[in-house]
């Protein structure tokens, strides 16, 4: 039986949940504690024991212990090939991996300066002003990333052929951008349609609904800039 250590507002662990859902794989989920004041501290002892980085997601499967969402998604696709979440040819697979990296690293870098918005307000006015200024710059960067994605999608239904890990990772980045008060998808009709279509798939819808519920329970409301 697969066990997944996840967290309510973990972009990376939720990628794995979507992949497990799309593949119809049952799993036992252990939600590690998270709050907006101290984050993941104190860390879940089993996560500390299983992952030298002390992060979620961690997935265990019959004695195998894996961490890092990218490694986990590759394992799941090889161990449970149907339905495939990677394209077939080396070139298409390489492009799919690059899309995932674009989401996980490049879009994440632009999301980080927005993350304070769901946390408690800091007292220091100067630091707050600096955070707000950084967030405005990051919003511009996110809008440029949307433009890039709109062009790459180019009217297609998915980013790498059929539904793939590229769509899962990019969906999570766009979802985080929207929940953190990043740019709306207005003006990006291809991307908006793709996001809406994915959001109707049960595995994506479940994760999106659980994140919205976790935000209501754990996060400070995000004010419009
Ligand atoms: N590259 C890793 C990133 C994992 C990661 O950043 N996890 C966050 C939650 S989304 C975490 O556990 N943070 C706690 C920490 O870094 O101490 C992946 O793809 O799984």
Our measurement of the CA-to-CA distance between the termini, rounded to an integer number of angstroms, reads 45 Å
- The rounded Rg comes to 18 Å
Element-level helix/strand string: EHEHEEHHHHHH
Structural class: alpha+beta
Regions with little confidence, pLDDT below 50 for 5+ residues:
none
Folded structure, characterized:
- The protein has helices at residues 11-23, 45-50, 69-79, 90-111, 125-153, 165-179, 189-199, 202-218, and strands spanning 2-6, 27-31, 58-61, 64-67.
- Strands 2-1-3-4 form a four-stranded mixed beta sheet, with helices on one face.
- The protein is globular, with a radius of gyration of 18 Å.
- The protein has two domains: 2-79, Glutaredoxin; 90-218, Glutathione S-transferase Yfyf (Class Pi), Chain A, domain 2, CATH 1.20.1050.10.
- Strand 3 and strand 4 form a beta hairpin.
- The chain is an alpha+beta fold and 225 residues long.
- The termini are far apart.
- The structure holds glutathione.
- Glutathione (GSH) is lined by residues 7, 10-12, 40, 54-57, 68-70, 104.
């Amino acid at each position: 039986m697969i066990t997944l250590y996840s967290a309510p507002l973990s972009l990376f662990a939720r990628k794995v949940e979507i992949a497990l859902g799309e593949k119809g794989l049952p799993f036992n989920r252990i939600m590690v504690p998270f709050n907006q004041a101290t984050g993941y501290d104190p860390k879940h002892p089993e996560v500390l024991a299983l992952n030298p980085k002390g992060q979620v997601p961690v997935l265990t499967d019959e004695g195998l212990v894996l961490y890092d969402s990218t490694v986990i998604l590759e394992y799941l696709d090889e161990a449970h090939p149907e339905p495939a979440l990677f394209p077939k040819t080396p070139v298409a697979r390489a492009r799919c991996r690059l899309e995932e990296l674009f989401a996980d690293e490049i879009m994440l870098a632009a999301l980080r300066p927005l993350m304070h918005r769901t946390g408690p307000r800091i007292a220091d006015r100067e630091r707050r002003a600096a955070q707000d200024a950084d967030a405005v710059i990051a919003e511009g960067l996110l809008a440029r990333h949307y433009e890039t994605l709109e062009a790459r999608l180019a009217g297609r239904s998915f980013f790498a052929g059929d539904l793939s890990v590229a769509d899962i990772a990019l969906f999570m980045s766009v979802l985080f951008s929207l929940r953190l008060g990043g740019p709306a998808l207005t003006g990006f009709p291809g991307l908006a349609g793709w996001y809406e279509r994915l959001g109707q798939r049960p595995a994506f819808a479940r994760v999106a609904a659980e994140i919205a519920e976790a935000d209501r329970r754990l996060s400070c409301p995000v004010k419009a800039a």
